[in-house]
Amino acid sequence: MTIAKLMGAVALVTLSTPAWAEQVTINLWTVDRPGEYHYKMAEEFSAKNPDIKVNVRSVQFPDMVNELAKAMATGEAPDVTYIDNPDVALFASRKLLLDMKPMIDKSSVIKLDTIFPGPLASVSYKGGIYGIPRGANTIALYYNADMFKAAGLDPNKPPQTWDELYADAKKLTNKEKGIYGLAFSAAASEEGTFQFLPWLQMAGGDYNKVNVPGGVEALTLWKKFIDEGLASKDTLIRGQWDSTGTFNAGNAAMDISGPWELPRMSKDAKFDFRVALLPVPKEGAPRASALGEGDNVIVANSKHPKEAFKFVEYMYEQMPRVWNEFGYMPAYPVKVDKPNYPQAYEVFNESMKFARNRGPSPDWAKVSKAIQTAIQTTLTGQSSPESALAAAQKSIDGVLSK
Amino acid sequence: MLRFNRVFRDGGGFDSVLVLLALAYLVAFSAFPLIYNLVISFQSVDLFTIATFDRPFVGLENYRDIVNDPLFWPVVRNTILFVGLSVVFQLGIGLALALFFRLDFPGSTWLRGLFLAGWIMPGLVVGAIWGWLLAGDFGVVNWLIQSLGLTQQKIFWLSDPSISIYSVIIANIWLGVPFNMILLSVGLAAIPADVYEAAELDGATRLQRFFTITLPMMRAQLGAVISLGIIFTLQQFDLFAALTQGGPSNASNVLQYWSWELAFREYRIGHGSVVSVFMIIVVIFVATAYVRSTRHEHVV
Asked: Shortest CA distance to A85 belongs to which of A51, A125, A26?
């Protein structure tokens, strides 16, 4: 009797083993650290789908493109990975990413037409959809309302146009106290391009059309900020995080950066800080803003595209949580109950409507480099805005015509 | 067994094995990468063709692109400035310190050891510390010179294009001095004391002793330290990454950093290889000089 039971149990175990073996493992690469977005998503998804196991591996943000290309070349690529939005075109153009369009068309979860135009453009390439935004971010103008009052400016009327921004920056600059009117980043890195592109787009240009009068106007204004001491010279080598650090410390009265600053700012900034939309060239000019954050993509030769897509769908569904839990803007309109930093959320959410993609170009790194060179040669006085942008246009044309 | 012993323990067999091991190591880890780098410099390589050998050869096109790049000559000039000034000051200060610590005052060996602390720190850490010191708006150096009344204006050490390369050079000199000092101290210690005593008895002044005894007897060490200094300085990458990223507007860009930017930021891997081929040629010349100066060592 007992022996029979035991044998039955053994039989059960042996029978159930094949079922266990069918568990699918998908590999995920991310720029997050343990405890952040992708780690949480993987954990939750695996808990809900015991038959799918998600392995997570962290890669440093600046190394992602290199590592991924290497892995794809040697056949060791993950199934799902994070890619920064301007780099999607690079991989999509070489057919290294899975076109999710057919799966999305059948999906009851992902609705393409609800995604904001900027994030949607960043995952579209020649009619295909090569990723799903995990969230988004954008930039806006932070300002120190206390300093506005002290300088006799109305803290309820942040600058709306470039002229007003310049005038306010001038009034707010206090050289004795070491206070700059404005902090931003013109660094020779992707951050410089990220910050400059919206100015160019508001003035009628874009990544493929930099040599426009509006571009000259924007660069001239940037140069005036530096030359007249309204912004620090270190703007040329400082990223957004460090520039905003000077705003938090009270060494700059206004600052251009994104929502990722808010947790630190609410701790460090001992003043009434507020957020406004980026000023436009002149009243009535079209708005534009930068588009940051990245996308969840599936690698073309993944062995488990179905499971990978299910995971991507799950992450897409979590959009209402991303603001409060992870600090990204939702990439499609969602209702956020009791958002953190409500005033900032409202402005950034409004700004998302104008957020525009960088590119798309499979050679984005080279386009971006040309723009950075134009910014840097102008701000150091090595060339005029006109000739800098003409030179940039020439190299961009060369890159894009290939 | 006996035969085996004869060949491998007493005969030339063991020697050959040792030589072959060293040779195999060199082929695998030095010769192969060098030659591979040379091959890549003649090919059109991007991120997605790094795993295959089958890439289009483009002849000298990469070389032509690099030499005609408007950045080429400014970067070469910066590299010469960086290497030249770094080596001269590292050597000068290192030699002065080595002579100073030879005076044998209480705690001199202890202090000399402490100097090495700077040298064993990773370049990125050194870079971060110098970055704080030299920051334009809230840097320690600016605060110091302003409180001393040396200048009213802030100096933008890292973001002023006419200064930034010198800021990196200053940090690199600081980093390289301890190594120079230690190597030169060893050389100084090897000079027999009786030579100095004899010279002193003959009435040679301190200066005469330095120029007629110390310098000539240190020739081999100086040659070695200068060659190694040039090679180490050409390898210096971390400080650029941490301090200026070659900027602003490439005002502090040097060959080693440019090569990395081309290959891993713009994904023009062939072009990055061209720049490193130029650097290899320089290093081969310097290494030859180094080998010659160490050969002299045996004579001494």
From this structure: A125
Whole-model pTM: value is 0.85
Is pLDDT larger for residue B164 or for residue A7? Answer: B164
| Digit-coded pLDDT (tens) for A232-251 | 999 999 999 999 999 999 99
Cα(A11)–Cα(A7) distance, integer angstroms: 6
Whether the ipTM is more than 0.90: the answer is: no
- The answer to whether A237 contacts B159, with C-beta atoms less than 8 Å apart, is yes
pLDDT above 70: residue B2? no
Q: Smallest Cα–Cα separation from B185: which of B115, B87, B122? A: B115
**Residue ranges, CATH 3.40.190.10, chain A:** 23-137+292-356, 140-290+363-400
- The verdict on A301 touching B (C-beta cutoff 8 Å) is no
Q: How is residue A389 written in tokens?
A: 């942008």
Q: Which amino acid is at B134?
A: L
The nearest alpha carbon in chain B to A179 belongs to B137
Domain A140-290+363-400 CATH superfamily: Periplasmic binding protein-like II (3.40.190.10)
Class of domain B60-122+168-299: mainly alpha
Nearest to A234 among B47, B136, B266 (CB): B136
Decide if pLDDT at B299 tops 70.
Answer: no
Is the CB of B159 less than 8 angstroms away from the CB of A189? Answer: no
The CATH fold assigned to A23-137+292-356 is D-Maltodextrin-Binding Protein; domain 2 (3.40.190)
